[in-house]
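ok so i was messing around last nite and threw this chain in just to see what happens. nothing serious, just curious
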Amino acid sequence: MPIIGFLYGVVSYGAFLASFLYAIGFVGNLLVPKSIDSGSSGALGEALLVNVALLGLFAIQHSVMARPAFKTWWTRIVPRPVERSTYVLISSVLLALLFWKWQAMPGSLWNVENRPGRMGLNALFWLGWLIALWSTFMIDHFDLFGLRQVYLQLRGVAYTPVRFNAGALYKFVRHPLMLGFLIAFWATPHMTIGHLLFSMAMTAYIFTGIHFEERDLANSHGEAFEQYRKDVPMIIPLPGRKDSRDRTP
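result:
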């Protein structure tokens, strides 16, 4: 029934919001009961194995379920209107598992103690999260997290893919969402061993995910995306690149 699908989508979106907000506190050691550097720390080797397994589980699910071939198979089991909501819900649950079971790994790579330095890094941390969230609204936030699909089903309207316009930050980098996450993960006045592991693993996952995503986009959009890729840098804004605001891969 459409109403059940819609309620399921709302619950899944709520799970995303909760996990996103908790992630800010987790990475930034802010207000949450369990953060990246809190809790008891056991043997370094055991903590490393547990944390790598948690990161790997999230990365594999996040990448595999996003691939077109998997979606084609998955929608034989899960109704197409709730496919995205299911992806969002499973991702949120695995993030919650990571937050819950993460083991602190003390020891520091750097610890900035002067006030201007700490303030600057904290400002970058918040800027990163803002860029990540803002970039979802530059495409279609509610489509990205499954609400648009279940809402259209509730209204009895056929789903149509969102048309991508390379505007706002997408004029300067192809993946502003990932740029925001990279800034947020690395901008910290106190980089512990555990935080370093998290940032390195997420950085590796981000660039691996970008590779597969761009391959899928090239297959779907052909020359239009290839031209966009030539015009706009992947992550780091570079001067002198051609403006692609009117291109629609």
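not much to say yet. The longest strand covers residues 108-111.
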